[in-house]
Design brief:
single chain; alpha/beta; Rossmann fold; CBS-domain; six-stranded mixed beta sheet; four-stranded antiparallel beta sheet; 15 helices; 13 strands
């Protein structure tokens, strides 16, 4: 399936208050979030956000409470209007859409999965799942056929006639995911979608999302405050603090090269073996004679287990065609898994 259209966020500012446009200039001149609030009673929600969200990939936006991540995602379907800046879907600025264009964009191009499930309590699983198609005017039989497919795909076949209060939290969130997928929207917006779930159910839902994404290649924007979740799901990660992007990149880049002490504190307890790939530590231009091979793109934890189980000290890293492109040793693999992250310096 072809990858979706990406989202480009450029110079995005959001200030909450009656004179927000005038306050932008003060923020551009260097005024902090705290100072803006204390002196002018305006709240800085987003401060010059620039993120290229790749089409067909999962873009995670991560930060603690109050960092601006939920404010940011609500600009993508324009539930919030920006004070300044652009949100581009392809060549179209969502911020400049007319009311009718925006309504069509929301109905056909975006779907949202919420933290608190947002299911209609008086509707069954099936009726909740087809709700978006009803709004679009899709005939009832076609809508239910499409919904049935996704109800089955998220593991809820047989529960079509149940009501939300008859389901567990994880099952309710599966309904929310099925409803979003039934709309067949290009963009899937997920605002702390799994945060209300118990840890094991949360992991299960992450697996469901990754399995579906491997097939569907939606442009997913996933909001979370949990670094482990961000690293597991995100093709790209942007970390926010006080409404500004502190660092963005792949999970591996962020873990290996945290931009400052704030990011370093986040990543210090990360299981590096599940984030860093063998390609990062392999020695190129050399071949091991052990006969053991590790696929390019494998995580260190996987490679370490393979090496330990085989009883050999090194292995060849091979590409998709099986051609050796480098070697790794058990010593270097274990060392890379336990070495602390080093913060970037100017």
């Amino acid at each position: 399936m072809a990858e979706g259209t990406g989202i480009e966020i450029r110079n995005l500012y959001k200030i909450f208050g009656p004179d927000d446009a005038a306050m932008v200039e003060k923020v551009k001149a260097g005024m902090s979030k705290t100072e803006l609030n204390e002196k002018f009673n305006h709240v800085l929600g987003l401060n010059d956000i620039n993120i290229s969200m790749p089409g067909g990939k999962i873009q995670v936006v991560m930060g603690l409470s109050g960092s601006g991540k939920s404010t940011l995602i609500r600009h993508i379907n324009r539930l919030i209007d920006p004070t300044a800046g652009e949100v581009l879907y392809g060549d179209v600025d969502i911020c400049r859409m007319s009311a009718s264009e925006l309504r069509s964009f929301r109905r056909h191009k975006t779907a949202m999965v919420f933290q608190k499930f947002a299911l209609l309590p008086h509707r069954t699983v099936m009726k909740n799942t087809v709700y978006g198609l009803e709004i679009q005017g899709v005939p009832a039989r076609e809508a239910e056929d499409r919904a049935a497919r996704w109800i089955s795909r998220v593991g809820l076949e047989g529960f079509e006639d149940h009501y939300p209060n008859q389901l567990s939290g994880g099952m309710q969130q599966r309904v929310g995911l099925a409803r979003a997928l039934t709309n067949d929207a290009d963009i899937l917006l997920m605002d702390e979608a799994f945060s209300a779930l118990d840890p094991l159910i949360r992991m299960d839902m992450q697996t469901v999302l990754l399995d579906l994404q491997e097939e569907l290649h939606k442009t997913v924007v996933f909001i979370t405050h949990d670094l482990d979740e961000a690293l597991r799901l995100g093709d790209r990660i942007a970390i926010l603090r006080d409404g500004a992007v502190i660092q963005q990149g792949t999970g591996q880049e962020i873990v290996l090269r945290p931009a400052d002490d704030y990011i370093a504190d986040f990543v210090q307890e990360v299981n590096r073996g599940r984030v860093i790939k063998v390609d990062t530590i392999m020695e190129t231009g050399k071949a091991a004679d052990t006969g053991l091979t590790v696929k390019s793109g494998s995580m260190l934890e996987e490679a370490a287990k393979l090496l330990a189980d085989s009883g050999v000290s090194s292995a060849n890293v091979v590409n998709g065609s099986g051609t050796p492109i480098g070697t790794i040793s058990i010593h270097d693999t274990i060392s890379a898994m336990v070495t602390p992250a080093t913060r970037e310096t100017a």
